[in-house]
Specification:
It is a single chain. With 89 residues, the chain is of the alpha+beta class. Strands 1-2-3-4-5 form a 5-stranded antiparallel sheet, with helices on one face. It is built from 2 helices and 5 strands; from the N terminus they run βββββαα. Helices cover 28% and strands 29% of the residues. The N and C termini lie far apart (24 Å).
């Protein structure tokens, strides 16, 4: 699973083949011992748990990087490695 971006201890990844949620545009997020799946469309937590502050940071990053995330998701669905996306600063 390629790492798409990493910032403030938050790691964001996209699975190349994600059979469980392939129809939902989402990203997998890990922070410390927490893991969650977050929608690229609206920033909703689809599963798992992240602390509130990290969810806010990921939502801000998703909003800023929406076009790049959409392009990466297209690559991931076609089993191509997504590009790394700039971290939140």
């Amino acid at each position: 699973m390629p790492t798409t971006s990493m910032f403030f201890g938050i790691m964001l990844r996209m699975y190349l083949l994600d059979d469980k949620q392939r129809n939902l545009l989402h990203i997998h997020v890990a922070y410390a011992e927490h893991e969650a799946t977050i929608s690229i469309i609206d920033g909703a937590v689809l599963g798992g748990h992240l602390p509130r502050q990290q969810v806010k940071l990921v939502r801000a990053w998703i909003e800023i990087q929406a076009d790049e995330l959409s392009a990466d998701r297209t690559l991931a669905v076609s089993v191509q490695a997504p590009y790394r996306i700039k971290p939140l600063r």
